[in-house]
Design goal:
431 residues; alpha/beta; 2 domains; three-stranded mixed β-sheet; 10 helices; 10 strands; globular; AB_hydrolase_fold
Length: 431
């Protein structure tokens, strides 16, 4: 189907139908495989034996074995279906979560979602299997268009594509102590980034008003990949001057990308700065940076090496754990500078990673204790908020790491800053 009509986040009723259809697809896959397995003993019994004549214990063992095979078949269907995924064609609406090409808001938002699937036994996820809602088993939010993109979309028309994202496990391969995974991880990064590069060029070409300012936003994997989209697609284009800001939340953005890779845009300097890049990694003092590299066994995130591979090995290969890593861009959403302190305007309660505190009114911002954000500290590795964050949002910090919820955590700071920064951009155009 061609994109002749605007594709917007679908209403709840339609979304439920789509999700049920997706679930039925998985269940149908499970049924077809399982029925095929169950059919074999039935056909044998009709010719050679009767299950009723088999001793009870043997029947139970046989049933349990066949059930186990059925469960494994379901896992295979759920995780491996679409392993050889087709390249998405962004002329088709099925390749988008949102495509507001007839929207009349002040800006256009290009949003790249975070990692939503684990990726068992494959490096990249099939875009066809994601469904109509921007979520997944490791997304941490029932709908990322509501939990994340909505922080930016009050003032902007949303363009949110599907892409062949890296699975979580693919990102966690050991890139420090061995070279055996380098080529596979680089190829996986190139597939995911390649999709976003193609769709961003489509976005620049097809958006109706090519004088409208652009906001770029992403979280985690989406933010990492957007650094290459900015370098290869926006930078040097006729529309590069339209960038209000790129919010690369939880993106582990290394400072040495500036100059070496990013040359047309700069690090954010103020709440009203434009044509700039914003990144932050939210933590508390109890977080151990090196823990990123050893999440479970040999599974860990080597962010600097991911950037090294993503940008064509642009610098010397980084060595050492994250606690002795290279400096990263850290812009405090409490001040929108690299300075300490600031204010916290409220968190959104959409995330499934942390429950609202008792007594919180649904759909209302969760506001920090008065003066609480004044204790925020900025260093080269993180925006470090006070350790007592759990006194007003219990369970929000796992081992001092707010990465899974940091867009939701700073949701209302982001929303207000988009308004302020966009107003500043328009003011500059009048000079």
């Amino acid at each position: 189907m061609s994109l002749s009509q605007p594709l917007i986040p679908r209403p709840g009723a339609l979304r439920q139908q789509l999700d049920k259809a997706a679930a039925m697809k998985v269940m149908t896959g499970f049924g077809s495989v399982s029925l095929g397995i169950w059919a074999y003993p039935a056909s044998v019994s009709s010719k050679t034996l009767s299950l009723s004549r088999i001793p009870g214990s043997t029947t139970q063992i046989l049933a349990a074995s066949l059930l186990s095979v059925g469960v494994l078949s379901a896992i295979f269907t759920l995780w491996l279906h679409g392993k050889s995924s087709n390249e998405p064609s962004y002329e088709n609406e099925e390749c988008w979560f949102a495509y507001e090409n007839t929207g009349q808001k002040k800006a256009d938002l290009f949003y790249a979602h975070t990692t939503t699937h684990a990726g068992l036994a494959r490096m990249n996820m099939s875009w066809e299997d994601i469904g109509g809602t921007c979520t997944g088993p490791v997304a941490g939010d029932p709908d990322l268009l509501v939990g994340q993109a909505a922080a930016f979309s009050e003032e902007a028309n949303v363009y949110a594509p599907k892409y062949r994202q890296m699975g979580f496990l693919a990102q966690g391969k050991d890139l420090e102590t061995t070279d055996e995974h380098l080529d596979a991880v680089e190829a996986s990064l190139n597939m995911a980034a390649g999709d976003l590069e193609r769709v961003f060029c489509h976005f620049l070409l097809k958006r109706p008003d090519k004088t409208r300012p652009i906001i770029i936003a992403g979280h985690s994997q989406g933010a990492i990949l957007l650094s290459r989209v900015i370098a290869t697609c926006l930078q040097g284009s006729e529309q590069q001057h339209l960038l209000v800001a790129a919010y690369l939340c939880g993106g582990y953005f290394p400072l040495d990308l500036f100059g070496a890779v990013i040359t047309a845009h700069h690090a954010c300097r103020s709440p009203t700065d434009t044509n700039c890049i914003i990144a932050f990694d939210t933590r508390t003092p109890k977080f151990k940076p090196e823990s990123l590299n050893k999440i479970v066994g040999k599974i860990g995130l080597w962010a600097h090496n991911l950037y090294w591979l993503l940008h064509g090995r642009y610098c010397a290969r980084h060595e050492g754990t994250d606690d002795v890593g290279k400096a990263r861009l850290q812009i405090n959403p409490g001040t929108w500078t690299n300075e300490n302190g600031g204010v916290h305007l409220g968190a959104s309660m959409t995330s499934s990673m942390a429950r609202p505190p008792r007594g919180h009114v649904k759909d209302e911002p969760l506001v920090a204790l008065k003066g609480w954000a004044a204790g925020t500290k900025v260093n080269f590795y993180s925006v470090c908020v006070r350790e007592d964050v759990e006194e007003w949002w219990p369970g929000c910090s796992k081992h001092g790491n707010l990465h899974p919820i940091e867009v939701q955590f700073w949701f209302y700071n982001i929303r207000e800053n988009v308004k302020e920064r966009l107003a500043a951009w328009f003011a500059l155009q009048k000079r």
